[in-house]
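pasting for the record
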Amino acid sequence: QLQLVESGGGLVQPGGSLKLSCTAKGLIFNVYSIGWFRQVPGKEREGISCISPSGSRTKYSDSVNGRFTISRDNAKHTVYLQMDSLKPEDTATYYCAATHGLFALCLLDQGKYLEVWGQGTLLNVSS
């Protein structure tokens, strides 16, 4: 069974950068699209980025497009989310999730099409 573990969260000042990692264990990693989602207590979960199994396709939400970059290293079973120009409104718990379904569905409906989820890592953007 595929398991996902996020790491890299922490406290960052506005305008700073941070890189999150999502490492997978089990099954065949390179058949899964991996998405990044975030959630603030009391708000809906937001899909922010997704990468296809080969890494050839990526997508971003409007809220992070141009500031965040998703990438993957299939040899290391890891997907990364490089976050630059961070804002206080980026503060949230960040989750990665996997699907072997359609890449087009990756970020839809708050991640309802994603099959496996990590436990989350907290990002706090504050001065």
